[in-house]
Amino acid sequence: MLSIANATGPKPYLAGLLSGFLSCSLPVAAHTDGDIHLAHWWVSPGEQAGIAVIREYIERADLHFSDTAIPGSGTARYYQTLNQLLASGSTPTASQVIGYDIHLWARQGRLVSLDDVARKEEWNEVIPYAIQQLSMYDGHWYAAPFNVHSTNWLWVNQHQLEAIGGQEPDTWDDFIVLLEKARQAGIIGLAIGNEPWEQTLLFESVAAGVGGVPFYRRNFLELAPQSGDRETFEQAFGRMRKLQEFVGDEYTRMVWSDATQQVHNGEALLQVQGSWVDGEFTAENQQPGTDYQCFRFPDTQGMVLFNADQYMLLNESDASADTRRKLASLLMDSDLQRDVNLASGAIPARVDATRSAFGDCGQKAISDMRNANMRRTLMGSVAMGNAHPAPIKEAVYRIVARHFQGDINDRQASEQLVQVLTDSKSD
Ligand code: GAL
Questions:
Q1: pLDDT tens per residue across span 157-187
Q2: Coil, strand or helix at 389
Q3: Where are the domains of the chain?
Q4: What does pTM read for this prediction?
Q5: Is the terminal CB of the chain with fewer CB neighbours within 10 Å at N or C?
Q6: ∠171-278-158 over CA atoms, to 5°?
């Protein structure tokens, strides 16, 4: 693997490492038929375990695997570097991609259509509709969704939970009682990193909990705030302020995987993050139910805020049509999806996946996704760009981050947010 930087390291080093890296020329393009070069942002231990599975399947199919890891968890930072790779003539066969970014790349005509494989393998029968809407653009398949993560989870250190006499919080009030107990016991209640997407990930669960399904759908998916929604957002921002009381001071120097370490070590009681945390715990041999717990974020039970990882195949790469077909088909293979998701903490993107191979958290996630798919409560994550296009997502990041830093108050943040959503609709 060619790694651009270690995402778990402190952020300030990142820019330097990236510019240093990009100044060298990279032998990343696929040269011989059967070579598959993947670009992705899977750099943490759990994510790397997921890549190892993809590699194994590709090699078993007699194809040659190589990869470039670029940290950035699907943010502008990642795509900027990817674009630089492409501009230097080092186009990977495929790149990891999430959410509405797929439409952006498809609109620019840079993606290979996967319609043939999709038709033959009946992708539209097995992939939840909410995810198909992201993988498809203008009626054509442009990305292969190989997992479903969900963001409205609490990841809790079970030993600390027992030590403080806490239990699963059903409601917001229960949640605050639990965090207070952690504080009294001298441990950090809520571990979080200092990245706008992480703070937005927390905010989307808080907002979903305050406003419920129609509110989330109307505002974030349909971009159509109604009267009264600003007040609901103000309440959500008020809850964000409350949660900050339980965050440790060192959060400013952390990213999400550092926060996961704090939960793992017992320095912190819990983290609100996507199911990739399950992959980190699995990589550390932690057992769900014994060492850690996954609880739905209070007041969001029944909703699944999702983030589906996908691969888009780039038409500037020199892979043959046959190699591309094989890759697309492999990514959607039921066995690959089972194994990669056992390693990385997500679940298969296919509704026909069997639950039995998965641990407690994976089984819960599969049942939750199936129910949410049927009841239309499977809704794209704002933070991960599955709810709306990137410019809106980034405007939301800025508001949430400025509020988190204390630059704006609850009322200002809610006004700005409603403004962004309203303007986006009319664009
Ligand atoms: C997301 C991605 C997940 C996980 C996470 C943290 O964008 O979909 O699979 O990698 O970032 O890096």
A1: 999 999 999 999 999 999 999 999 999 999 9
A2: coil
A3: 12-149+307-375, 151-305+382-426
A4: 0.92
A5: C
A6: 55
